Amino acid sequence: MKEFRSGFVAIIGRPNVGKSTLLNQLVGQKLAIMSDKPQTTRNKIIGVLNRDNAQIVFIDTPGIHKPKHKLGELMVEASRRSLNEVDCILLLIDVTRKLGRGDEHVLTNLAQVKTPVILVINKIDLLPISEVLPLIDQWKDKFDFREIVPVSALRNTNTPALVDLIEDLLPPGPKYYPQDMITDQPERLLVAELIREKVLHRTR
Predict the structure, then answer these.
(1) Among 156, 133, 202, which residue's Cα sits nearest to residue 26?
(2) What is the DSSP string of 132-199?
(3) Are 52 and 81 in contact, with CB atoms under 8 Å apart?
(4) Residues 9, 51: contact at Cβ < 8 Å?
(5) For the chain, how big is the Rg over CA atoms in Å?
(6) How would you label 112-127 residue by residue, b for 16+ Cβ within 10 Å and e otherwise?
(7) Which end of the chain is more exposed for a tag (fewer CB within 10 A), N or C?
(8) Is residue 165 within 8 Å of 145, Cβ to Cβ?
(9) What string of DSSP letters covers 105-141?
(10) DSSP code of residue 28
(11) What is the DSSP string of 42-57?
(12) All structural domains of the chain
């Protein structure tokens, strides 16, 4: 019988690369607010995915960026702390955006932790594969990733394969949350987040 595994997974990346969309796909329910405005994920939202032989707890962090104000500094510090407390890190990037200084800043932070990192290349539905492959090579030269997985979080492309890879990286352990629990966020807070998302869309 396969040994049961469990652990915590942080989803990180620059603002607006699709972290909330990916979390919602992986867990199967809308938990994290989705908007094209930067820094809309304020809370450390936990999504729990229960599988036959594993329980995966996802942490959706604020984007790691160069802070411009005190609140930004606090959000970045919270992201850094979470990296040292998890079993796996998903670094999510947008395939349509070129590797820049913001990405270098994220990689600098990752170099300070020993947690295995999976590079998740999102929005592959927007480009032909001939344009995706050079980007993969470019990122390979920047960091020693455990795995590199191209996905479309919006269309749920390759996300099942990503979950399988994550499960393999988790240590043997117990269930941290009940079988029917998918988040530790109070229902009232989730409703407030959904309302805030609608407001953000109206004020774009």
Answers:
(1) 156
(2) HHHHHHHHHTT---SEEEE-BTTTTBSHHHHHHHHHHHSPB---SS-TT--BSS-HHHHHHHHHHHHH
(3) no
(4) no
(5) 16
(6) ebebbbbbbbbbbeee
(7) N
(8) no
(9) HHHHHHTT--S-EEEEEE-GGGS-HHHHHHHHHHHHT
(10) T
(11) -S-EEEEEE-SSEEEE
(12) 5-202 (3.40.50.300)
Q: Find out whether 63 and 39 touch, Cβ atoms under 8 Å.
A: yes
pLDDT in tens, the chain (204 residues): 789 999 999 888 877 888 888 988 888 776 654 444 444 444 465 688 999 999 998 886 655 656 566 766 776 676 677 688 889 999 999 999 988 888 888 898 888 888 999 999 999 999 999 999 999 999 999 999 999 999 999 999 999 999 999 999 999 999 988 887 666 555 444 445 545 555 555 655
Whether 93 contacts 103, CB under 8 Å: yes
**Which token pair is 125?**
């539905």
* Separation of alpha carbons 195 and 204, rounded Å: 15
CB 24 within 8 A of CB 31: yes
> Distance between CA atoms of 100 and 43, rounded to whole angstroms?
26
What ranges make up the beta strands (E) of the chain?
5-12, 45-50, 54-60, 88-94, 117-122, 147-150
Residue 174 CA to chain centroid, in angstroms? 23
Q: What is the pLDDT of residues 85-136, one digit of tens each?
A: 889 999 999 999 988 888 888 898 888 888 999 999 999 999 999 999 999 9
Tokens 């960091």 appear where?
143
